[in-house]
UniProtKB/TrEMBL annotation, chain A:
SUPFAM superfamilies: Multidrug efflux transporter AcrB transmembrane domain (SSF82866). Pfam families: Sec_GG (PF07549), SecD_1st (PF21760), SecD_SecF_C (PF02355), SecDF_P1_head (PF22599). The keyword Cell membrane applies. InterPro entries: Acrflvin-R, SecD, SecD/SecF_arch_bac, SecD/SecF_CS, SecD_1st, SecD_SecF_C, SecD_SecF_C_bact, SecDF_P1_head. It comes from the Bacteria. It is a multi-pass membrane protein. This is Protein translocase subunit SecD.
Automatic annotation (TrEMBL), chain B:
The keyword ATP-binding does not apply. It comes from Gemmatimonas groenlandica. Residues 306-336 are annotated as: Disordered. Residues 121-301 form the Protein export membrane protein SecD/SecF C-terminal domain. It comes from the Bacteria. GO terms for biological process: intracellular protein transmembrane transport; protein targeting; protein transport by the Sec complex. This is Protein-export membrane protein SecF. SUPFAM superfamilies: Multidrug efflux transporter AcrB transmembrane domain. GO terms for molecular function: protein-transporting ATPase activity. It is a multi-pass membrane protein.
Amino acid sequence: MANLKYRILLIVGLFAASAWALFPRTVVERVKRDGVFVYDTVRRVPLKRGLDLQGGMHLTLEVDESKQAVANKSEALDRALKVVRQRIDEFGVSEPVVQKAGTERIIVELPGIDDAERAQDVVQKSAFLEFQITDKTQAFEKVMPRFDEIAKNAGLSTASQAKASGDTTKKVGVTSLLTQKSDSSKDSTGKAVATTGADSAATTPAAVTGGLFSSSVQAGQIPGQYIVPEASYAAIERALALPAIQGAMPPGKVMRWGVDSLVSGTQRFFALYVLDSRPIITGEVLTDARPSTDPVEGNVVQFTLNNEGARRFKVETGKHVKDNMAIVLDQRVVTAPVLNSAIGRNGQITLGGGTLQSAQDLALVLRAGALPVPLKVAEVRSIGASLGADSINKGALSLAVAFLLIVVILVGYYRFSGMLAVAALVLYLVYTLAVLAGFNAVLTLPGLAGFVLSIGIAVDANVLIFERIREELDHGKSNRLAIDEGFRHALSAIVDTSATTILSGMVLYQYGTGPVRGFAVTLIAGLVASLFTAIFVSKTFFMIWLSRTRGNQTLSI
Amino acid sequence: MLRIFHNTKFEFVKHWRMAAGLTIAFIVAGLVTFGITGGVNYGIEFTGGTLMQVQFKQAPDVAVVRSTLDKAGITGSEIQQYGTNTEYTIRARDEKQVEAQAAGAEGISKSIASALDQQFGAGNVTIVRTEAVGPKVGSELRSGAFTAMIIASLFTLIYLAIRFDWRFGAAAVLSTAHDILVTFAFIKMFNIEVSLTVVAAILTLLGYSANDTIIIFDRVREDLKKRIKGESLAKVLDRAINETLPRSIMTHATTLASTLALLFIAGEVIRPFAMVMAFGVFVATFSSIYVAGPLLLWIESKYPRTSSDSTSRAVNAGNDNSGDTRSRKAERLAAR
């Protein structure tokens, strides 16, 4: 009976370990309280819930090669990974996942995020910051005829230019508009483009003579700034991308669009800047950035530079007093204030009517540094928190119902032995969950469904053994012998089915991706637990029963 | 002792023609629907595209929702009621449309959200769930799952060939393949969307069906050595199936109980999974009796066991743990 004692000890020990592994414990975690993330202690069952069960956002990012050719993608992704991780940490999500998937993608998981769009912007923003002096040599006017010619040859000199001639009457309106920052629309330029086509088609009269650039681009309020009406925006943007135009750029200058569009009456305008191509400093020398609210300027981001950056910035800004310095983020001009004096270590970026939140987000991405490559979203899933909670409730209810049904079937059919099987099944549930918790497996909705299903399948081994015991009893064997033989004969079938299942599970793990892998882990964990409970645990139960009965009692099976 | 199907003497194998006719008819019906409606109804995680689950404050007019989306340039999207009459899913799966979005995969969901906000007023429409997948991710996922399935089948075949006999292995794998085929036909006929959860169901089924067949084959192997002289293999098969019948009924009943709980309680997301599994339980039962057995007979007739070698190997393999083979062997030795 010493053998039996050890068996019981092992089962109880494992149960205690599993219960301990699954016991809710107090952890310090970043949690959301009244809309802000704070560190706090919470009690949690150490089973990780997937995004579909708690709500949140899943992003798959990949290098956007349409914007920039990348030689070594994997290495660039490694660097991007660091930046994204740092930004997410600062964004303040509890238990985020930021990891590389293969050599091509980054996976970001943000549990509990309800503002999906904002999160996405923070992750994806490239945040390459440059300070460039605007051109005051009228370099653009000099190359304009050449630009017009190239545009004409490329077939870009029609349609939109007529619009511009009509707009000249509004010139005064436009320039006065530019002086008032608060008028600038918050609409992103991207959205405006989408409506361009429809507008120009509706209002464009016949084409007039003159080049694309000379007829639609007007000088703006400050040196190096030009104003483009919405109708010509698409054509000019395309023209600027032409290699011939790129080649004809004034030497040492670059052209950049402004971040926002400007609205005057019913017309929308875009700002185009001509800048010195050599930045006076870039975001690399930035050590800190903080959002702040200025009574005059509205929401701003104040930044601090490192020693070397501060020295260079002071020298360069000193050389350019009374010039305009464009603050360029991701190749778009955020603002271009006049330099009144040399600036040293500290400066600020004016957002021109942006919200405090956008100032916070800009400060955040500047602090965490720029992405080495532009990233685009290859996949996004977001699940509302209420839907997640709903899924958990339904899943738990179906688990309970399935369990009850199986208890009824087992106890109804096998009576006392059925009860032993149910006890083994309870142990199976606890062990499996503990193994999953131990492997840090993430419980998802399909995983939960698989778990519910597995309790129906897990009793198979017990059923096999019980049926075999019945057969042996039919052959007139004693209880003890029938139980022994029943277990022994059922074993080969159980071993074969388990081995093939484990083999398949391992193959699925090896060759499957993402969710298929998760499935494989659950499959193997469940199988090992069910083997242990069906063979070892229920055998022990029978052994206990045998040790407490005198041989002639009938076995209820 | 409560007993069902105890000591039955059904002749299962005899009816193989009817079973084959039935199963072939089903597969053909599946192929015909495949031919008519064309293609598998893949979920967006495989094709790429956008799925949004939205909840309206008041039940909306579907025609208005559709025209709103059309106006926003999202043409040809599927709008489906989901759960209550205020919940809808919107699917835009046109790959070209997805690709055309400069912003990447999530572009469409943004334009859907803003179009709905404009039409119904902000706050009246809640986006409960969004999934937007680029087509490239989807195709990798698809090929990954497919390769895994094929290799898993190969491993099962090899394992069974070693443990039993290659004839048993081939019959088991072919009958599992049959189950998958029939399940595909079912999926196609009921136009179930093949999402990752459905793939999980098919993978579960793969294991479940193979298990069922192996358990019967294990009994066949055992019965082969108790074979009465002159008894045909068909008779042995029938005997083995009858002997394992109570077990099959019980285990299918418990699995079905779990599946039905999922089907009726777990909600819309799990429903396709549960439907495929519920159907799969019946197919697995059917195939392990009517498909795997006859297939084994057919393989045996094509490639009969020439030497007594392979048979005895098949028989012996199952008795690693069984005491009475050893004693029987000893008897045989003694008889010599």
